[in-house]
């Protein structure tokens, strides 16, 4: 059985979504596979990369794109209903 099997891929993805700051050695310990195999799953198979000590997807999935479109549509609708008052209440910031 390969250490890069679908079950391990799904487990790694779930662990990343649960804690984006999880360390490679924690994956390896939990799944009882090598750190090298974990890195292969994360970077080559799941297409994540490390940004500011967090694992983030390299590319947006169709689901992520749809979620962003829905959010934008909702914000636009609120702006059309509430006008400048809505804009004044928006707070922006950097995740880091």
Poorly predicted parts: none
- The whole-angstrom Rg is 18 Å
Major pleated sheet: 2 strands, antiparallel
What is the CATH architecture descriptor of the largest domain? Answer: Orthogonal Bundle
Number of strands: 2
Q: Strand order, main sheet: write it out.
A: 1-2
**Strand percent estimate:** 5-15%
CATH topology of the largest domain: Arc Repressor Mutant, subunit A
SSE order? HHHEEHH
Q: What's the CATH class of the largest domain, please?
A: Mainly Alpha
- Tell me the number of structural domains: 2
The 3D shape can be described as elongated
Helix content: 55-70%
Which whole number gives the mean pLDDT?
85
Explain this structure to me?
One of its GO terms (molecular function) is nucleic acid binding. With 96 residues, the protein is mainly alpha-helical. The protein folds into two domains: 6-57, Arc Repressor Mutant, subunit A (Orthogonal Bundle), CATH 1.10.10; 60-96, no CATH class. It is 60% helix and 8% strand. It is built from five helices and two strands; from the N terminus they run H-H-H-E-E-H-H. It has helices at residues 6-18, 24-31, 35-45, 62-82, 84-88; strands at residues 48-51, 54-57. It has a two-stranded antiparallel ribbon with strand order 1-2. A hairpin with a 2-residue loop joins strand 1 (48-51) and strand 2. Helix 2 (24-31) crosses helix 3. It is elongated. The mean pLDDT is 85.
């Amino acid at each position: 059985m390969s250490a890069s099997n679908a079950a391990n891929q799904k487990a790694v993805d779930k662990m990343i979504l649960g804690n984006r700051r999880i360390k490679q050695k924690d994956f390896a310990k939990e799944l009882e596979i090598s750190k090298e195999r974990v890195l292969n799953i994360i970077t080559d198979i799941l297409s994540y990369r490390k940004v500011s000590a967090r694992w983030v997807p390299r590319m947006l999935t169709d689901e992520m794109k749809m979620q962003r479109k829905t959010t934008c549509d909702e914000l636009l609708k609120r702006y059309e209903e509430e006008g400048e008052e809505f804009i004044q209440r928006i707070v922006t910031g950097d995740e880091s």
